[in-house]
Every structure is written in C-alpha cells, then in structure tokens.
Amino acid sequence: MQVSKQNFTFSTEPWLVTLSILVCIATIALSYLAWRRSGYLRPVLWLELLRCAIVAFGALLLNQPEWVQEFQSDEKPVLMLLADASQSMQTKDAVFAAPDGRNDVRSRAEAIAPMLDTEKWSALSSGMEVQITKFPLEGSDAGTDLNAALSTALDSKRQIAGVVLMSDGDWNQGSSPMTAAMRYRSQGIPILAVPVGAPNRLPDIELLSVDTPTFGITNKAVRIPFVIESAMPRDHVANVVVTSSDGERLTKEVRIAAMSRTTDFVNWVPKTEGEFTLTVDVPTHAEELIATNNTMSTPIVIRAERLKVLVIEGYPRWEYRYLRNALSRDPGVDVSCLLFHPTLGKVGGGNRDYIKEFPNTPDELSQYDVVFLGDVGLDDNQMTAEQCKLLRGLIEYQASGLVLMPGWQGRQNTLVDTDLEPLFPVVLDSAQPSGIGSKTPMKFDLTEAGRRSLLTKLADTQDDNLEAWSNLPGFQWYAPVVKAKAGSEVLCVHSESSNEFGRVPLIVTKTFGAGKVLFMGTEGAWRWRRGVEDKYHYRFWGQVVRWMAYQRNMAKGETMRFYFSPDQPTLGQTLALRANVMEKSGEPLVSGDVAVRITAPSGKFKTIRLTSAGADSWGSFEGRYAVDEPGSHSVVLTCKQTEATLETSFFVQGTSRERIGLAARPKVLEELARATNGKVLSLTDPDAMGSVIRNIPPAPSLLRRFQLWAHPWTIGLMVTALAAFWIGRKWAGLI
User: Fold this and answer.
1) Exposed, middle or buried: residue 229 (CB in 10 Å: 0-12, 13-18, 19+)?
2) Which of 133, 145, 193, 617 is the most buried (most CB within 10 A)?
3) What pTM was estimated for this model as a whole?
4) For residue 565, what are the β-bridge partners?
5) Segments in 171-240 forming alpha helices (H)
6) In whole angstroms, what is the distance from residue 404 CA to residue 371 CA?
7) Which CATH number fits domain 556-652: 3.40.50.300, 2.60.40.1930, 1.10.10.10, 2.40.10.10?
8) Delimiting residues of CATH 3.40.50.410 domain(s) in the chain
C-alpha cells in the first residue's frame, strides 16, 4: 500500500463556521480593548495574544478538523474464479447449440471446463490478476459448501475486485451462502454468478439404500429391504434382481411409483455359513439417462445359530406347554425351563430341558439370550428380589431379551415393587390382578406399528398378514392393563375392550438399556395352532426370540461381545457402542482399559476408549461413534487387562451427499448476485460476460483519518495553553 493523496478536511455546518469566525473577531476586539485599557503594557499584549490563540484554536476544534490519507494498493486487484468440482457437476444436463443445429448435451463439469483457462480470463480482465480455485478438493466426498468457498476467498488477504462463481448451486453442507454474501456486500465486492445445469431433474431411477442386516442365520430367511427413488413421469414395473456372491440369484417384480420413493424387500434363505456380498440391481428404464446409480452391494455374515433361552413359569398352563414345545423343536434354540409347580415337592421337571434353580450369579445368567417370565412372582418361594435385580442387569447391560407373559393367577403383579418395574412396558391394574376373562373368544387388532413390525409378520405380504391376524382363533383371557407406558410401542390392541386411555394394549415392546422387552397380554397364542398346526405359533415365537437376541449376537468371542445401535446405521448417525467384557474366570470385568478401533472405508481410523457403565453393570462398557462415511467399517475391540481381542465389522448405509442427476439450483446463485450488486452471467454469451467483467469498478482505496479534534495531544495542548494563560495573568498581577 502507498499514499496517493492526503489533505486537511473539516466536518462542520456553515452556521458553525460563521459562528466561529464571529467569536474570533469578538475575542480580538475585546483583547484590543483590554490591552488599551492597561496602557499598552507589553505583558498584557502577550496575554491577550495567547487568549486570542486559545479561542481561535477552540473554534478550529469545534469544526472537527481531520487529517485524511488515501492509500492505493500497489498490487493488482484479483479476480477470483471459484469453480464447483463436486460430484453433482458430473450430471449431464448442460445444453449447448451445436454448429449443425442440434443440441449438444454435456456434463456440468464439461460445460465450465473451457472457462478454467487463465489466459482466456486475462484477456477479459485486463489490469486484474486472475486466480482460479476449485472446491471442494478433488476426490472429496464432503459435499458442497458454498459459504466456506466464498469465505475462504474473502479471507485470503488479497485485494479482490470481484468473484466469478461457476456452480450448479447445489450446496448441501455448511451454513447458508448468504452469510458470506453479506460480508461481500459490506466490502463492496460483487459476486458474478454463472449457473450451470438444468433446473429440472433428469429422468432417472436411483437405488437409494439396501438395508441388509449385519448377520443372518443358515436356513433362516433374511429380509433385504431396499428403497428406489424415481424421477420418471409414469409408474412402471421392474424385475429387481438380488445376487449373492456365491451365485444365487433372486428376482422380484416391483412397481416403481413415478416421482416418488418405493420401498420393498426380498427374502433370501442362505444355505451355508460364511461372509457374503449381496448385490441389488434395478433394471435400467428405456427413458433413463443415468444408469450408474441402479446397483448397490452390501456385505452380510451368515453363521450357524444357537440361542440360549430360559423359560420361567409357575404353573404348567397350556401357553407354557406349547411354548416349551415350540422352542425345544427349534433347531436354532437351546431351551432351559424353570418350573415352580405348586404341587411338586421340588423345582424342575422330568427331562434335560429343566434346571433345578434360578441362575444366581451374573456369569451363569449371562449365557441366556432371552428369558420368558411367566405367571411367577415373589410369593410361594418363587422369585426373590435379588434374582429380579440380576434379571434386570441381564437385560440392561447384556442386551438380552425379556418376554413378560402374565397369567390368571396374577403373580406378576408382585414384581411391580422390585427392580423389574421399569422394564414393564405397561401399567398393570392392581385392583384386578387375575385379569379379565370371557366365555366368547376375543380378537387381536394390529396397530399401525404392528402392521410394519417384523414380530407380528405371520405372512409374507401385508395384505396376507392382516388376513392371517383377523382369522386367528380368539383368546378368552387378557391381562389387566391400564395403559402402555411412554416410550413403548404398541403392536396389538384388544379389538373391543377399552378404557379412558383407549383400547387395551395386548402386545407391547420396549427398549430398556441395551436389551428389549416384550409384553404378551394374553395366554391364547397356543390356540393359533388350530387347523394350521405350527404355522403361526412357531413362526411368531421364533421371530420374537431372534428379534430379541439379534443385537446381542452381532459379534462375540469367548470373553467379549460387541454390539451397536442402531443396528443398521446410516450416514450421519451417531452409533451407541457397547461391549461386554468378562474376566478369564468368567466373571464380569468391573473396570479396565477397553478400547475399540474403527477403520473407515477411506482408511481413516479412530480409537475410542469405552467407559465402564458402573460396578453393577455386568462388564458393560459404552462409547459413541459419529458415522461420516458410507461403506464397510472394520472394528477391533481390545481389553488390556484380559488381553482379549475381538474383530468384526459393520456396514453403513447411505448415499453420497453429492448425487448425480439432481436438478440444479440457479436461484441460489441469482440470490447471491443480487445481494452483492453483482450480475448473473451465461456460459452461452461470452461477449456479455467479458463486458461485465471489464466494467467491474476498481477496488475502493483505503482511507485513514486522524481526528485532530479528539486526539489526546490536542486536548493536552489546549489544557497547557489554558494553564499558561492563567499563570500569565497571575504573573502580570491581573488576578
């Protein structure tokens, strides 16, 4: 910077100037009269001259004198060219007129490529230095942040004459670009916007997500939901193909709705164990212009299943007998039964399924994935308060499941005063502990949540499922439920019975800590076998057991378990990480150094130190992880004290923030130009673009003002002069 001009200025009104002159003239006249009255003494002359000088100086300061220096930069002003290099710029929808009269369609990146030549811009902007910057960094999947790109250019400490912004306007990250535009406006820097791309979306079919579960079980159906987004003007039918890495191929006919999202699923039954990759492919439509986003692959681990289930019951009622048979005949379940029969001399039964006592230590109880708690309570030497506390710890910290199945004896009501009370998803009516019975069969009625839930899926399609529930044999007893608790999910209600809170809940689920709870408010599920044998009864309880044990069995070793929530994470979510670590002796680790190292698909890794949930937490350690990349993440769980290691992985669903085929947003760029007194330029009119750039006003010079009327030295000089005048009058004997 160099000084180009400097001068003396006043900030005043004409009347004040006139008044100042009159005051000075009056002061001179009065001083002359005082000097003459003194007999023209020399000391009085000097005093009156000092008085006149003080008054004149005060009059000058009253008119606010300033010393102004104007600085002009000795560097060339910079014309900043910001070019959008995000993935969305690969959309092929920029139309140009070809020499033969046809339309030449290019990608947005190809459309602005000729403008990224410094020599070309130098010819348009003589007297300015051209600086070309691409954003975001090439290969980055961080999304488009127009505000950050504009702010970075402004913070470069260069003298910016103007900014040419070439983009499709599709910002999807960071603050609004209008925040930066206000800074440009305050500094008088125009934004020249060059929109590129069509404002309407191209005809396209896009496979948005495939929500494959983390693992599956051999010979058990795996549900593979997927979401398809259509930008086509009409509905059409497509054969969606799912291919496994071992060559198995499944096909499903799906009607894809126009201009909306379609959700569907495919059931796959794996035959062998191992790691597989499932590829979902949506056929390309004849009118579709983008075929690269119709396929998606996700990993899945298939393993043999062996779930441990504990059934606790007080009396061998029909519900218990058929449930025990269903679980014992399931090849993927090991069932243990604890029966407090009132007429038996000892606890237990007559075969290997029965155990003689409740598992009274955490390491013994932690082997069970699901616990069924029937019509039992604290009375008749059944459950104890300490056992209830153990059972709560199993659900809360070990991610096991609890199924509450009350009966007509009403013994579960005694558990409300124990540590199990927070686990109940419903409020029981203590006034009628025996429940409500009826001679005529009563029916279930699925709620909206029940129609979507996998637990209540008794048939493959939604219509068939509703028909199956409506045709189920009725029940003749139900539990005395007042209402469902806050935070629970009601899947089924009574078709007729209701109270002041609505219809009576019958099947209710709830998440408690790391585990899940299901309340079954009737004891008529065993009747579902009528006429169809085990078709619905076995399927329902099999789904319940596997739903409750799913998270707990995501990854496990001899002394460690690792699981996370949600179990099908998507981009941008924060995962709740949990690990159960046991000592080599089998007891839960109370405290220790437990860490998990997560490596993202890009190779970036993060080590998270998990913290203990407490002394009574059954060796539970917790942490959190923010997901910012889609794809497969590898996980290594380690414990310093036990020297144990567990390796696993999880897959993050989600599409990139930058999607090809979406409509451009030219209005965003138009608003930026309008806010900064800039212009909207067109790639198809280079002459007009050059004219606008050449007419960019020069950058304003920098002014530095010294306010003499308010400067400390000025005030000091005035005080000194007044003091000298007062001392002079004393010296001259005038006071």
Assistant:
1) buried
2) 193
3) 0.65
4) 576
5) 178-186
6) 9
7) 2.60.40.1930
8) 78-198+663-700
Q: Which range has the worst mean pLDDT, 131-135, 587-591, 666-670, 693-697?
A: 693-697
Give the residue-averaged pLDDT of 92-119: 76
Residues ≥6 apart with Cβ < 8 Å to 495: 442, 443, 444, 445, 503
Residue 124 confidence class, pLDDT cut points 50, 70, 90: low
CA distance 339 to 314: 6
Reduced to 3 states (helix: H, G, I; strand: E, B; else coil), residue 319 is helix
Q: How confident is the model at residue 348 (pLDDT cuts 50, 70, 90)?
A: low
Q: Mean per-residue pLDDT for 73-79?
A: 73
pLDDT of residue 534: 83
Task: Say yes or no to pLDDT of 486 above 60.
Answer: yes
Beta bridge partners of residue 133, listed in sequence order? 82
> Boundaries of CATH 2.60.40.1930 in the chain?
556-652
**Position 402, amino acid:** L
Q: What is the pLDDT of residues 17-51, one digit of tens each?
A: 888 888 889 988 988 888 888 888 888 888 888 88
Confidence band for 139, pLDDT divided at 50, 70 and 90: very low
| Fold of the domain built from segment(s) 307-553 | Rossmann fold (3.40.50)
DSSP 582: B
Q: What's the rounded mean pLDDT across residues 166-177? A: 88
| Cβ pair 661, 203 in contact under 8 A | no
DSSP β-ladder status, 94-97 and 605-612: unpaired
With H, G, I as helix, E, B as strand and everything else as coil, classify residue 514. coil
- What's the rounded Cα separation, in Å, for the pair 367 and 309? 9
- Cα–Cα separations (whole angstroms), residue 52 to 29, 30, 32, 57, 716: 10, 9, 10, 8, 18
Residue (of 476, 516, 553) closest to 396 by Cα position: 516
State the average pLDDT over residues 50-71.
Answer: 83
Per-residue model confidence (pLDDT) at position 448: 92
Question: Can you give 350-393 as a three-state secondary structure string?
Answer: CCCCECCCCCCCHHHHCCCCEEEECCCCCCCCCCCHHHHHHHHH
**Residue 71, strand partner residues:** 3, 702
Best CA proximity match to 261, nearest among 291, 242, 282: 282
CATH of domain 205-295: 2.60.40.10
Q: Domain 78-198+663-700: give its CATH code.
A: 3.40.50.410
Give the mean model confidence (pLDDT) for residues 556-560: 80
The full length of the chain comes to: 735
Nearest 5°: phi and psi at 683?
A: -65, -25
The full DSSP string for 328-349 is HT-TTEEEEEEE--TT-SSS--
Q: Measuring CA to CA, how many Å separate 9 from each of 110, 283, 691? A: 55, 77, 38
Q: Rounded mean pLDDT of the chain?
A: 85
CB 67 within 8 A of CB 709: no
| Residue spans in the chain of domains classed CATH 2.60.40.10 | 205-295
Token pair, residue 519, equals 């309340």
Count CA within 13 A, CB hemisphere, residue 189.
23
